């Protein structure tokens, strides 16, 4: 499992904290352009809406994407069996980019009130045509 958690928070200019080192990670410090195979975790922004953490599944081949939003608001995103863990705060600022060939499943395990307060904590979107 690849962990991308442990951040102490982030703002529009920097992401702070550490990620757990892995065989593919050159250091224990989070790289805002972390690439594992075809999957990339990087910064993204929406005009007028701020800067977000983006997990991009890439365009190579169909991917099996499973998103689990845990009852505490944290999440796990699995791309072809490789798991990425995000804290509650990271989950609320997470965007997952997929292509048209990807299979996406979302399992929201939060309680009813949490779903009402934050209806779609993770935004899933596709590449523009």
Give the gist of this structure.
Helix content is 9%, strand content 46%.
Number of structurally distinct domains: 1
User: Using only CA atoms, what is the Rg?
Assistant: 14 Å
What fraction, in percent, of the residue positions are helical? under 10%
State which percent range the strand residues make up. Answer: over 45%
How does this structure look, described?
This protein has 129 residues and is mainly β. It has one domain. It is 9% helix and 46% strand. It is built from two helices and twelve strands, in the order βββββββββαββαβ. The chain has helices at 88-92, 112-117, and strands at 2-3, 7-10, 15-17, 34-36, 39-46, 50-56, 64-69, 75-79, 82-86, 94-98, 103-108, 122-126. The strands form three sheets. Strands 1-9-8-7-11 form a five-stranded mixed sheet. A five-stranded mixed sheet has the order 4-5-6-10-12. Strand 5 and strand 6 (50-56) form a beta hairpin. The longest helix is centred in the last third of the chain and has 6 residues, at 112-117. The termini are far apart. Residues 1-31 have low confidence and may be disordered.
């Amino acid at each position: 499992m690849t962990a991308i958690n442990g951040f102490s928070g982030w703002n529009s200019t920097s992401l702070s904290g550490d990620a757990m080192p892995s065989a593919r990670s050159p250091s224990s410090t989070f790289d805002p352009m972390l690439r594992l195979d075809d999957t990339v975790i990087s910064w993204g922004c929406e005009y007028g809406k701020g800067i977000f953490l983006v997990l991009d599944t890439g365009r190579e081949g169909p991917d099996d994407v499973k998103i689990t939003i845990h009852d505490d608001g944290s999440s796990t995103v699995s791309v072809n069996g490789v798991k990425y863990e995000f804290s509650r705060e990271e989950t609320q600022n997470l965007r997952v980019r997929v292509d048209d060939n990807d299979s996406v499943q979302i399992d929201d395990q939060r309680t009813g009130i949490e779903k009402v307060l934050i209806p779609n904590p993770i935004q899933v979107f596709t590449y523009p045509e």
